[in-house]
Amino acid sequence: MSRPSVLVVTERGDRPETGAFIALHRAGVRIKVLGWADSPYAKWLIDERVPFEPLVLLGKRDRSGTESIRWHIDDFRPDILHLMRKRSIFNGLAAAKGRPVRIVLYRGIVGNVSVLNPLDWMSFLNPRVDRIVCVAEAVRQSFLALGIGPLKIAPEKLVTIYKGHDLSWYRAEPLDLTTIGVPRGAFVVTCVANVRPRKGIPILIRSSEFLPAGLPIHFLLVGTGMTSPSITRVIRRSPYRDRFHVLGYREDAPQILAASDVSVLPSLRREGLPRSVIESMAYRTPPIVSDAGGSPELVEHERSGLVVPAGDPEALGAAILRLYVDRDFCAELGRNARRRIATTFTVERTAEETLKLYERLVSSSDPSTA
Questions:
Q1: Buried b (16+ CB within 10 A) or exposed e, 16-47
Q2: Which residues of 143-163 are buried (b: 16+ CB within 10 A; e: fewer)?
Q3: Sign of dihedral through CA atoms 165, 171, 177, 179?
Q4: Structural domains of the chain, with CATH
Q5: pLDDT in tens, 214-272
Q6: Strand extents, DSSP E, the chain
Q7: Cβ-proximal residues to 118 (8 Å cutoff; 6+ apart), any chain
Q8: How far apart are CA 343 and CA 341, in angstroms?
Q9: Half-sphere exposure of residue 350, counting CA atoms within 13 Å on the CB side?
Q10: Which three-class secondary structure state does DSSP give residue 74?
């Protein structure tokens, strides 16, 4: 059977999805990618001879962008239209109207879709959609829980495919943390996240209240929003207030993770497959995550990290203390974490499962042209 042809519409993309599309191209899939020309991964696609065309979508309803996608559908004549981001989904579905093409969407977070929201019926709940690729089983289950009766989404539309990685992407040298004020020999706990209420950053800060006083534990907060007044107020109430290093956005976040003893992501809800946790695991830095969303699918409790109840600062503090006290166990978790990325969350596996999805779609009956 000949390989399917696929037109991908994305925005800036990311390294795992780009790596998967390159692997599909190498496997013989006729693939073309439309995306932002300033994407750091556009050159990678071009270097690997994956057809790439610049496309900027100015919003969910960009008439010029929709017409451009429609032109590429008519010119490239793909079997499958794979839409990766919110703007891509809205404009891609509009462009596909009347075209005999299968449509695959990507979803990377839990929730925030409702049968009561008309916009969701123009995107993920659109009857024209053939498949939704969920980045974690928790995402898939959130779709299955939607609606009642005829408003429920068909289970066969949902498939879980983890984003895959390659350890060769993670070769950054650990940062000398003394250059950012961390004393040599400190036990370093790092959180890399962009601050949103669902990320639970105050839970991490409050976890320090449950640590014995005076331990040489330092906390690094990396990401957009970490310097906000609301975060600062919580830190001021911590007995470890002088050991929090609020770094904000940093280009060298991977180097910081590589130099840390532990990483923490204290999400409260809606987590997909968090990139910062994957990077931490690739650098042998054991993660502590909450049981929100897809994090427990990524981290095996007491094997490749620790999983604690979401919103429980005392449990998080106990987990940090456990790894501080038992350094051998901490190191073992780090080794197992890296091994898990190398064997379970691989780009080759992502490409293989995506290709199977494509092949099942093109071998089924003709798509609707509604």
A1: bbbbbbbbbbeeebbbbbbbbeebebbebbee
A2: beebeeeeeebeeebbbbbbb
A3: negative
A4: 5-164+346-363 (3.40.50.2000), 168-343 (3.40.50.2000)
A5: 999 999 999 999 999 999 999 999 999 999 999 999 999 999 999 999 999 999 999 99
A6: 5-9, 30-35, 52-54, 80-83, 102-107, 131-134, 158-160, 187-192, 217-222, 244-248, 262-265, 287-290, 306-308
A7: none
A8: 6
A9: 24
A10: helix
For residue 308, count CB atoms less than 10 angstroms from its CB and return exposed for 0-12, middle for 13-18, buried for 19 or more: buried
* DSSP-based three-state secondary structure for 320: helix
All residues at 6 or more sequence positions from 253 whose CB lies less than 8 Å from its CB, including other chains: 192, 222, 223, 276, 279
- How far is the CA of 65 from the CAs of 57, 79, 99, in angstroms? 6, 20, 17
245-256 tens-digit pLDDT: 999 999 999 999
DSSP state of 212: P
Residue whose token pair is 């556009």:
42
Output DSSP code: residue 253: H
Q: Please measure the distance between the N-terminal and C-terminal CA atoms of the chain and give it in whole angstroms.
A: 27
Instruction: Tell me the pTM.
Output: 0.94
DSSP β-ladder status, 102-107 and 131-134:
parallel
Contact 200, 289 (CB under 8 A): no
Bridge partners of residue 103, in order along the sequence: 81
Torsion from C-alpha of 273, 226, 264, 260, nearest 10 degrees: 110
